[in-house]
Design brief:
Layout lengths: L5 E6 L2 E6 L10 H15 L6 E6 L3 E3 L4 H6 L3 H21 L4 E5 L2 E3 L1 H8 L2 E5 L3 E3 L13 H8 L1 H9 L4 E2 H7 L4 E3 L4 H13 L3 H14 L4 H15 L3 H12 L9
Parallel strand pairs: 2-3, 3-5, 4-6, 5-7, 6-8, 7-10
Antiparallel strand pairs: 1-2, 8-9
Helix pairs in contact: 1-3, 3-4, 5-6, 9-10
């Protein structure tokens, strides 16, 4: 299927989603919000996909919401309500799919663009990428991302970066715990392939359930979460991958996981 605002390709077992509005720094308009959700929804349910990569075309990853469209909107409150909800559907789809999603931040990630990256399970960023929560700078209350930033940085640091709209580099983001790996621009593809290759050798069902448990751990109390872990482990013990994994361990050979 052809899309106006992004490209989708599936290579091996990896889905590559490329935001494609380079003249607007790949910023979100309603079309991108709807198309990105549709693609995420589809790849999340595709049994042939075990890993998802999101990146941007041109000089940036995603510039956030399209400010020119905000300016042009006759009913700005209605427009922001609709746009943030469209972005939120994408964020929820990323966090709820039981597959690892990697953000390849090839340049600027501002506002909702930073939020989109933080919604992903891992972030690999080029060294010269700049990031900013951005909303405050245009007189807008944050429409996404405050929970991700606060849970990672803690209250005082979150206030520093959100309330003052402070720009930070990929290196600073790495030291803050927001980014997994920082690379030179010409090394981004190689770094991505290294992570993809790792996931392709792992049991996809177990990885997906582990992601689910990580997300649930952010909201569950200890007792209920221990029970969920027990039930999930017991369920996964009925898969073919588990039988293969324990047999390979006992017999001392490399397991061949099939996602069953």
């Amino acid at each position: 299927m052809d899309y106006e605002t992004l490209h989708l390709s599936i290579q091996g077992k990896t889905a590559f989603i490329v935001l494609n509005r380079p003249d607007r720094l790949n910023s979100f308009d309603m079309r991108l919000g709807h198309e990105l959700y549709e693609v995420l929804h589809d790849v999340g349910r595709n049994p042939d996909v075990c890993c998802v990569v999101i990146r941007g075309t041109g000089k940036g990853f995603c510039g956030g919401g399209d400010v020119k469209e905000m300016h042009a909107a006759a009913d700005k409150s209605r427009f922001l309500r609709d746009l943030t909800r469209a972005i939120h559907r994408c964020v929820i789809e990323i966090r709820s799919m039981e597959k690892p999603v990697i953000a390849a931040v090839n340049g600027a990630a501002f506002g909702a663009g930073l939020s989109l990256a933080l919604a992903c399970d891992m972030i690999i960023a080029v060294k010269d990428a700049k990031m900013n929560t951005a909303f405050i700078g245009i007189g807008l209350a944050p429409g996404c991302g405050t929970q991700f930033v606060t849970k990672t940085l803690g209250y005082q640091k979150a206030c520093e970066y959100i309330l003052t709209s402070k720009t930070f580099t990929a290196e600073e983001g790495y030291h803050l715990g927001l980014i997994n790996k920082v690379v030179e621009p010409d090394q981004l593809d190689a770094a991505l392939q290294e992570v993809i290759s790792t996931f392709q050798g792992l049991p996809p069902i177990a990885v997906g359930k582990a992601k689910m448990l990580i997300n649930k751990s952010l909201e569950n109390d200890m007792i209920s979460h221990l029970e969920l872990e027990s039930k999930t482990a017991a369920w996964s013990a009925g898969t073919q991958d588990f039988a293969e994994g324990v047999a390979a361990f006992v017999e001392k050979h490399k397991p061949q996981f099939k996602g069953k």
